[in-house]
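Key result, reporting period 2: structure in, sequence out.
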């Protein structure tokens, strides 16, 4: 190893710092969008509207709307933003940096888990504050575990699905079309009359086990299981399957390469015009890339690669 390589390696942040910085940055990006307002505000509005003048509400009702906010963020908001970043060439630029590929891949999913858990927790907090729902410490910890596992399962599966979405315009319709039928038959908005075979299918999808696990945690009483084992197994299976499929199918390159604009014709310089004189050395000065020199640290160039605006 040369002295230059040793110096570059010494200047690189640790893997833990890179992952933490990536999670923090991607979480700020996801939470700064207007779509996250829907993931937090819409479930609370529906919770209030569905109960009207009732002074209290059941743990199952709160669990359904909390799961709605979580899944809406982890599936639709995250999926659309991931497709938009890929088609805009942002993922391609990230891939060209010294940041390990797995670090960006995992950091983006973990950031989505953080934001989705906060969205679901906001609905639970609204239920506790507005309707006086009793929440024990063990129930809160159980709900947090269900939130994290459910958010990871939905985000990992959404990552795998984005590989099949060719354009930004197709992202929202595709994600919505695969989202609403699942949450409706899973009873997120309340129980519905459905055939036995459809109810059986819903029990193996990631929405119904999430609602059951949250309802069991929020309404936990002594002598009953805090989290049903079957629900945890189903959510864990979706998390593993989604992550495996996402790793195998993840796309860094856009489906449609960006079309280059035709080069502008340079006008002939007039005598005495110094605006078109070449730089010193006889050549035009090169334009530096926004992330040039990021071998020292990728953290300082996050804004240049993926702007928050």
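The corresponding designed sequence is given below.
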């Amino acid at each position: 190893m040369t002295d230059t390589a040793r110096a570059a390696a010494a200047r690189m942040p640790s893997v833990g710092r890179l992952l933490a910085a990536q999670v923090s940055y991607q979480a700020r990006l996801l939470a700064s969008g207007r779509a996250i307002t829907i993931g937090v505000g819409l479930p609370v509005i529906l919770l209030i509207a569905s109960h009207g003048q009732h002074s209290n509400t059941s743990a199952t009702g709160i669990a359904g709307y909390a799961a709605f906010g979580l899944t809406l963020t982890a599936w639709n908001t995250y999926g659309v933003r991931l497709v938009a970043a890929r088609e805009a060439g942002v993922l391609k630029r990230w891939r060209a940096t010294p940041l390990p590929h797995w670090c960006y891949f995992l950091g983006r999913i973990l950031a989505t888990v953080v934001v989705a858990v906060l969205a679901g927790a906001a609905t639970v907090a609204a239920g506790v504050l507005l309707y006086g729902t009793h929440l024990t410490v063990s129930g809160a910890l159980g709900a947090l575990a269900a939130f994290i596992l459910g958010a990871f399962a939905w985000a990992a599966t959404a990552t795998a699905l984005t590989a099949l979405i060719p354009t930004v315009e197709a992202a929202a319709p595709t994600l919505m079309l695969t989202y609403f039928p699942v949450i409706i038959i899973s009873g997120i908005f309340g129980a519905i009359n459905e055939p036995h075979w459809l109810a059986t299918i819903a029990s193996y999808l990631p929405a119904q086990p999430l609602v059951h696990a949250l309802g069991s945690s929020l309404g936990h009483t002594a002598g009953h299981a805090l989290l049903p084992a079957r629900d945890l197994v189903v959510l864990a299976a979706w998390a593993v399957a989604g992550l495996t499929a996402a790793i195998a199918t993840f796309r860094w390159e856009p489906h449609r390469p960006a079309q280059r604009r035709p080069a502008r014709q340079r006008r002939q310089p007039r005598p005495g015009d110094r605006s078109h004189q070449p730089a010193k050395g006889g050549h035009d000065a090169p334009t530096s890339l926004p992330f040039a020199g990021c071998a020292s640290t990728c953290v300082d160039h996050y804004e240049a690669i993926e702007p928050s605006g």
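Confidence is low (pLDDT under 50) at residues 278-301. The chain is about 65% helix and 0% strand. This case is discussed further under Risks and Mitigation.
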